[in-house]
Amino acid sequence: MFIPTTRYTTRSHGPRTVYHCRGCDIYYSETFATPISGLTTPLSRIIEVLKARSEGMSLNATARTFRVSKKSVIDWERRLADLKPTLMLYSVLHEFIHQEIEGDELYTKVDKNVSPSVSDGWTIVLMERGSRFLWELHCGRKDKQLFEQALTGLATVIEQTGSISLLTDGERRYGNLVFDICYDVIRTGKPGRPKKRLPKGVRVRLKNKGAKQRRGRPRKTYQAPIPEHPQTTHEVAENTIHANHVEAFNASIRRRNAAFRRKTNTYAKSRKHLQRTLDVYWVVHNFVRVHFTTKVVPAVTLGILKLGLSWAQLLSIRYAV
Fold first, then answer.
1. Contact 135, 101 (CB under 8 A)
2. Angle between helices 271-287 and 43-54 (to 10 degrees)
3. What would the pLDDT profile of 45-70 be if each residue is shown by its tens digit?
4. What is the mean pLDDT of residues 99-107?
5. Triad 266, 138, 181: Cα angle to 5°
6. How far from each other are the two terminal CA atoms of the chain, in whole angstroms?
7. Long-range CB contacts (< 8 A, 24+ apart) of 257-263?
8. More confidently predicted of 10 and 279
9. Are 131 and 301 contacting, i.e. CB atoms less than 8 angstroms apart?
10. Which of 20, 149, 204, 283 yields a CA-CA distance of 20 to 30 A from 180?
């Protein structure tokens, strides 16, 4: 049981309450384990700086414009980015009837201008089509490990969804790794090893770009690259097998994240810093910013929240223990 005991006045944030937990016999402030814990900078100024960063202002420009140190901006972003596991956990606790998820990748430079094949600047995006909710936004080298990390999180979402479609453009590893991570064994009573299929309600569709222009035997334009469960009834129309919505998102993130600018040298200095900016973008996009197409916050459209969060509410959320 938590009981308010005393109140104290801060220099920049006004009065605050101290609570007492009878179960563990400890006292703590109302900002304990929140992103603004221990900060003396006014909350309005922190929000102003984070808003500028989330709208595409580079780190150096933000530090010059608002007259704050780059270390402070990075620290505030790190505190906000640390909310992602908490909000992700809250999101996957909900049950969903049906989801259509688009998968795609985008690229930026990290540290040095090296070949894309050895760069850590590849970012996997898994977006729910109807609500524009981002289930995954993770960067790294474009190898099996990066895809596995993204699709392992998607497997958790699959467990909470009755029917889910994963739609991709040309990249077969999405379907293959989903099949490796989560599958059902179908026993038909016939002799031999039971066949492996995707779980019931899960389907993967692939659109092969440039399939007709390929030399030799042409590939099919629309494919189900891996076997599906025989009781999966929902079909996906061929004209809906695309990643157009996530492609539009890729254009948007290049405007709102300075690390993805095309013709400047504002790229991230390391993979860790790039992932920090992506985590901040994930939190703001899903829970704060109203999407210009749906006119609603993505988390509200998906049914996770009833109303979008304000910046002050977001910075007052406690980290999951």
1. yes
2. 100
3. 999 999 999 999 999 999 999 999 99
4. 94
5. 160
6. 18
7. 257/56, 257/281, 258/53, 258/56, 258/57, 258/58, 258/59, 259/108, 260/106, 260/108
8. 279
9. yes
10. 283
Residue partners of 114: CB distance under 8 A and separation at least 6: none
Q: What are phi and psi of 217, to 5 degrees?
A: -75, 115
Burial label for 139, CB within 10 Å (0-12, 13-18, 19+), is buried
Q: What is the DSSP letter of 268?
A: B
Q: State pLDDT tens for residues 138-156.
A: 999 999 999 999 999 999 9
Domains with residue ranges and CATH for the chain:
1-30 (no CATH), 95-253 (3.30.420)
> Strands across the sheet with 134-140, in order?
134-140, 122-128, 96-107, 161-169, 202-207, 222-223
Q: What angle do CA 145, 151, 156 make, to 5 degrees?
A: 135
Cα three-residue angle 113-140-93, rounded to 5 degrees: 150
Tokens of 72: 């402070």
In sequence order, what DSSP letters do the residues of 227-248 get, joined into one string? ---TT------GGG-S-HHHHH
Output the six-digit token pair for 157.
Answer: 């979402």
Q: Residue 152 belongs to what H/E stretch?
A: helix 144-159
Integer Rg of the chain from CA = 23
- This prediction has a pTM of 0.90
Residue 130 sits at φ, ψ, to 5 deg, of -70, -40
Calpha distance 214→83 (Å, rounded): 45
pLDDT at 19 over 80: no
Check if the beta carbon of residue 129 is closer than 8 Å to that of residue 250: no
